[in-house]
Amino acid sequence: MKQTNDNAGDAASASEQIDARIAELTDWRGAALAKVRSIIKQADPEVEETWKWRGVPVWEHAGILCTGETYKGAVKLTFAKGASLSDPAGLFNSSLDGNTRRAIDIHEGAAIDEAALGELIQAAVALNTAGKKPKKA
Questions:
Q1: How many domains does the chain have?
Q2: Is residue 60 in some structural domain?
Q3: pLDDT tens digits for range 79-116
Q4: pLDDT per residue over 19-48, tens digit each?
């Protein structure tokens, strides 16, 4: 898994920064962020973890798949191309009016449909990689 960091000068890898964010969130949000991170990694073993915009975990594969923002009342997974993804399980419950992004707001006590989220990640990977030429060695 490739790890990048867009904050030049930071010695910590993106994965380490995400680890630290999860650890500093000592309530349900840390557990929720850790859970979605695990689901993302299982759904796409080639996912790249990055740390952008001064503190946002980002998961990428041939472009951004989703971000993992934490707020007081929610952990928000924003899918960069969510409006183009099929969501048969109805996971998207936020940012529904835009033409590009869609989000999943996870609130305290909410169950995470692991299978459906994994399928959504895989669909985002397929969308990002469709029509892209493989990298030359």
A1: 1
A2: yes
A3: 999 999 999 999 999 999 989 999 999 999 999 999 99
A4: 999 999 999 999 999 999 999 999 999 999
Residue 81, classed as helix, strand or coil, is coil
CB 32 within 8 A of CB 112: yes
- C-alpha–C-alpha distance, residues 40 and 19, integer Å: 15
Phi, psi of 52 (to 5 degrees): -130, 170
The neighbour count for residue 30, using CB atoms within 10 Å, is 16
In a domain, 134, yes or no: no
Pairing of strands 56-60, 48-52: antiparallel
Domain that holds residue 60: 12-128
Would residue 47 count as lying in a domain? Answer: yes
Which position has the token pair 């029509």?
131
Instruction: Check residue 35 and give its pLDDT.
Output: 98
DSSP letter assigned to residue 84:
G
Residue type, 46: E
